[in-house]
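Researcher: Here's my situation. A collaborator sent me these components and asked whether they could plausibly form a single complex. I don't have experimental data yet, so a predicted model of the whole assembly would be a useful starting point for our discussion.
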Amino acid sequence: MNLKNTLCAAVAASFLTAGVASAENLTIATVNNGDMIRMQGMTEDFTKKTGHTVEWVTLEENVLRQRVTTDITTKGGAFDIMTIGMYETPIWGKNGWLVPLNDLSEGYNAADILPAMAGGLSHEGTLFAAPFYGESSMIMYRKDLFEKAGITMPKSPSWSHIARAARKMTNRETGVNGICLRGKAGWGEGGAFITAMSNSFGARWFDDKWNAQFDTREWSDTLNFFKNMMDDAGPAGYATNGFNENLSLFQQGKCGMWIDATVAASFVTNPKDSTVADKVGFALAPDNGMGRRSNWLWAWALAIPAGTKKEAAAKQFIEWATSNGYIELVAAKEGWANVPPGARTSLYENPNYKDIPFAKMTLESILSADPNNSTVEPSPYVGVQFAAIPEFAGIATEVSQEFSAAYAGKQSIAAALQKAQTITNDAMEAAGYK
Amino acid sequence: MARAVTNQRKATNTLFAWAIGLLIFFPILWTILTSFKTEAQAINDPPIFFFFDWTLENYAAVMERSDYAKFLWNSIIIAVGSTILGVIIAVPAAWSMAFVPSKRTKDILLWMLSTKMLPAVGVLYPIYLIFIGLGILDSRLGLVVVLMLINLPIIVWMLYTYFKEIPVDILEAARMDGASLRDEIIHVLTPMAIPGIASTVLLNIILAWNEAFWTLNLTAAKAAPLTAFIASYSSPEGLFFAKLSAASTMAIAPILIMGWFSQKQLVRGLTFGAVK
């Protein structure tokens, strides 16, 4: 018995020593949003379980994107784990810059990741980043204003219904705008919104030969519809409004509707910050009867740059941070409303989470977006509100600047579309697509 | 009557100067005020100026989330280190340009200044690769060198302007008394140019403190200064303006205090030689 105990103690001690000897210090680059900040506060749990310590580099989204892109393209090795989005993952995976994540442990249950998320974070079937949280876009609307205006909100409204409701709710005297949408230049701001909206109008960025499609009627319809509706029922200066500006307007009761990221639901229903917290309803993003809705799909995910010397520890962290165990940890400490949404199927089967008012609509929105089949006419690219090619960010930023100028009345829609066509075709030709 | 007009003009000028001063200072004042508001008050429309429930919750949140002392220490080392190194290199350079000019001195000065006109992002990749090669990525040493190089043209230009104001006869007298070149620069020129050097040092510490391109792009977890600290509170998806303002106030406070106490030297140095 004594011998057995001694042996057990020796084995345990050797494991412990091995654990300590291989304990790593991971440097993780991440984005500054509520879920990621919360994760930083939970890191102690990871350290307790594995012995590995973590150093965080938290940056604003655009700074982060530039920072990690510089590092990965130069093989700088400054980070062991990077927080990247759905746009970067397939491109970087294809280039061999990321460590494949197909060999995560059985207990991790990779099959539980929402198929839309796994699809958008893979290249040719190989998962290159594990989703920490996912989002789509949906309508957040003021139930009281709809009631006052005598309108109802269907679960799956059309754009014409939305435009009618927006105009009816608008009251310039009381400062209520029927609808608030992103018009701000930037591929991730107004560019993302108008691209997702254009999908529902039958438009696409490129045909199967990578020719720009801004000279089509579908794009003209999209932009004209958007501008007319926003001129009549949107806030003043909407051409420079992005997520934060619209969030501020909505929280102060100045928007009848807001179509934006599903993560905004937790902000607008938080009574601490929102004056309309108890008056918000949710609906699917509008369509136009063409089989595609205008919602997008996005995920912030954790990936390991190829060449890191701490791959094993990095994989352990990713398994911890994107697991069901982490979701339960957050739920226990901060409540179910604060768990990272949109990544795992089982979350939406959890009875505790089903009570969250926006949970169902978030899931339905995510499930209704398909990055591999986002347009009515076939297109050669992956992505809903973007085309997952390296050139897209630069092109779409320029194009969205032209669109914003048109919203602000500095040029006509036709002129903006013509410029967008030229910008895109020139860039694609220079990049060798044509 | 003439006296009344003079007084009236004085009052107008004073008022005008205060108005301009307030206008320039307003963004900083607004940031400081916002840092004491709740997130909801920070975005209130119409904006709330002074009459709100002042809170320290943002400072508490920032202190809890970030290691402020680490960022502050990195900022101090990088700003002071790069300035001292820059002055050590710039004093002899400015001396030679001011007192033994060649035909090309003006061209060299202009060329030095023209390097400031190149967009920094244009050389990001080469410098990043050099840093990887030298193993100084995310190190304070690397940033000290880079910021020194970036600010060197300004240091040389400023010192050159100050040195030009010093009568060359004094240096010649020192030489006739047997002073070596080293003695001439260290014991004669430098003491006479102390106000100019002091203002150059102060201005360059401010420039290095506020530099936000290289300090963000060449650092990760170890050498990140206060610019990275601020960047970690900026978010395009989420209204965290009050926390961002608290972080910004904490980041600018040391340099603001330093500027306040040394404003006389700064103004004296910056206007040195401006009026003859």
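Model: Some features of this prediction you could bring to your collaborator: The two ends of chain A are 77 Å apart (CA to CA). The CA atoms of residues 196 and 385 of chain A lie 5 Å apart.
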